[in-house]
Design brief:
Number of helices: 10
Number of strands: 0
Helix content: over 70%
Distance between the termini: 39 Å
Number of domains: 1
Length: about 260
C-alpha cells in the first residue's frame, strides 16, 4: 500500500511538472494584455485629468497622483484576469502612491504601500506562477469558515493596534482609526490575493474600497476617490472571474487552463 501511495504521488508530481505553466514574464497573451491595460488606464487617467483641469482645477492631480493612479488601475484590471503583469504594475503603483500618501499625511496608507505592498508584490509574483503542485500556477481556492472568522478578527485587532502605532510614530493625524482600518483590511486582502483566495475580492469591495472612497473625499484626494469607485466595478468583475476559474478547476482544468478559460 505504501508503494502504491508513493507511486501515485510521483505520478501526480510528474503530471504537474508536465502541465503548462506561466513563464516569469507571462505568456504572449499576458504581455499583450499588459500593454492593452496600460493603454486603457492611460486613456482613463487622461480623461479625468482633462476634465479636472477644465471644470474643477482644484481637483487636478499631482504628478505622483496621476502616475500612481495609472499604474494602480492597470494593476487591478490585470489582477482580475490573474495576469502576472499585475505585479510589475503594482510595484510601480505602490512606490508612487506611498510617497503621495505621506505628502497628504495619511501615514498609515504611506507605510502600507512602501513597507508592505512592495515586498508582497515580489512574493506574489513567485507564488502565482510557481506556488501550485510541481511548481506550476497557483490554483484559485476558497477559505474555510474558520479562516474567514480569523481574518475578520485579525482586521479588527489590526485596526486598533495600527491606529495606536501610527499615533506613536507620527503624532496626531486627522483620521487615525479610519486610516488604520483600511490599512489592516488591505494587509489581509493582499495576503489573500497573493495566495489566490476568492474571499480577497470581498475584502477589497467592502472594508477597503467603500471606506477608502469616503476617506479620500474627506482629504481632497479626489482622483484616488474616483479610482476606488472604479475599483468597485473591477473588483466585482474580479470576483466573478475568479469564481469561474475555480469552477473550471473543479471540472478538471489546471490552474493555467482555468485562468485562460475564465
Amino acid at each position: 500500500m505504501d508503494d502504491l501511495n508513493r507511486t501515485t504521488t510521483l505520478l501526480a508530481e510528474q503530471l504537474a511538472r508536465s502541465a503548462p505553466r506561466t513563464p516569469a514574464w507571462g505568456t504572449s497573451a499576458d504581455q499583450v494584455g499588459a500593454v492593452r491595460a496600460g493603454g486603457l488606464a492611460a486613456i482613463a487617467v487622461a480623461a479625468y485629468t482633462a476634465a479636472a483641469h477644465r471644470y474643477a482645477p482644484q481637483f487636478a492631480p499631482t504628478g505622483l497622483e496621476l502616475f500612481g493612479t495609472w499604474s494602480s488601475l492597470a494593476c487591478v484590471w490585470l489582477t482580475r484576469r490573474q495576469n502576472i503583469w499585475s505585479m510589475p504594475y503594482g510595484i510601480v503603483s505602490v512606490v508612487l502612491m506611498g510617497l503621495f500618501f505621506f505628502d497628504i499625511e495619511l501615514v498609515g496608507q504611506g507605510w502600507l504601500h512602501l513597507g508592505f505592498y512592495i515586498p508582497v508584490q515580489f512574493v506574489g509574483w513567485w507564488l502565482w506562477i510557481r506556488g501550485g503542485a510541481g511548481r506550476t500556477d497557483l490554483p484559485v481556492s476558497w477559505m474555510s469558515w474558520r479562516a474567514r472568522g480569523l481574518t475578520v478578527l485579525g482586521i479588527a485587532l489590526g485596526t486598533v493596534v495600527l491606529a495606536w502605532l501610527f499615533g506613536e510614530l507620527h503624532g496626531p493625524t486627522p483620521y487615525p482609526l479610519w486610516d488604520a482600518e483600511i490599512v489592516a483590511a488591505s494587509v489581509a486582502a493582499q495576503l489573500l490575493l497573493i495566495t489566490k483566495r476568492v474571499e480577497s475580492w470581498f475584502v477589497w469591495l467592502l472594508p477597503i474600497d467603500v471606506a477608502a472612497i469616503g476617506l479620500y473625499l474627506r482629504t481632497d484626494a479626489t482622483m484616488f476617490a474616483a479610482l476606488y469607485a472604479l475599483y468597485l466595478v473591477i473588483a466585482t468583475a474580479g470576483l466573478v472571474d475568479w469564481m469561474k476559474a475555480h469552477r473550471a478547476q473543479r471540472r478538471g482544468c489546471t490552474a493555467f487552463q482555468a485562468r485562460h478559460a475564465a
